[in-house]
């Protein structure tokens, strides 16, 4: 307790209202700068699921946002746009087993215009909805 009193007696001359207000404003400004700069996109690599999933691309606040490539342990890969960690927009999903989908994604699924090429090189081109080809007759 004596140390606290000694410390206070030594520095009480600096504990004025203007100095405390200046300190408060400085803390607020630094906090605002931190909040705004943490939302700036940057390039990075994420290792997920104990290294079974690797993402290389744009990160915003630690999440996959923007252009990038994700590679799965089994050899599958997706290259394209992400939003909040999910396939969103234009991209290409390539399966290790040999099929490939190129086109629009929504909420992590083939959704919109795209082209699916099977392992046997059969091509389905047209509209997909929630991962299902819609132009079948």
Automatic annotation (TrEMBL):
Q: Which InterPro entries match?
A: MORN, UCP034300_MORN_rpt-cont
Recorded hits in Pfam families, A to Z, give:
MORN
Q: Which keywords label this protein? A: Membrane, Repeat, Transmembrane, Transmembrane helix
Q: Does the keyword Nuclease apply?
A: no
Task: State if Protein biosynthesis is listed as a keyword.
Answer: no
Q: Where are the transmembrane segments?
A: 20-40
Q: Which PANTHER family match?
A: RADIAL SPOKE HEAD 1 HOMOLOG
Q: Which domain of life is it from?
A: Bacteria
What's the protein name?
MORN repeat protein
